[in-house]
Amino acid sequence: MRSETDHSSYTAQVTPEDLWKRVGAILTLEREKKGWKNVVDVHRFGGRAAPTNKTIGSQEEGHIQTIDGLERHVSALGLSLVDVLRSALSDAEKPITPDALRLLRMFERLGPGQQSALLRIAEELASKTPEGGNR
User: Is residue 71 a contact partner of residue 21, using CB atoms and an 8 Å limit?
Assistant: First the structure.
């Protein structure tokens, strides 16, 4: 599949069905990372703009009806639709998470000195975290 946008183009080795299943898996993972046990929690804690519980459940299964509904779901999780889609399209064995993509966008807006400072902080934090573990 090849797609072009205003700013970039990409080639993805993923079918539309696989893409939406990956998106659904990301939505589920991100919900669970927040400690939200079920789809009702997305609506409860994600704000009034969140789609219905039925839509949330359907999207987590990879059934995306509208981009508007998907964007509302993603926003309720505190994520960007662009980051979720890029994560779903990544070819890596371990896909880049939406949070990592968000961090990358912020990093690119920093000046060289700020980037160096942030890298030093990240290296220090990583050296204190057990490999592969989360705090």
Answer: no
Residue type, 45: F
Both structure tokens of 115: 């980037």
pTM equals 0.70
pLDDT tens, residue by residue, 12-57? 577 889 999 999 999 999 999 999 999 999 989 998 889 999 999 9
Task: Please give the domain boundaries of the chain with CATH numbers for all domains.
Answer: 2-96 (1.10.260.40)
Phi, psi at 115, each rounded to 5°: -60, -45
CB 53 within 8 A of CB 68: no
Residue 34 CA neighbour count, 13 Å, CB half = 20
For 106-128, the DSSP string reads HHHHS-HHHHHHHHHHHHHHHHH
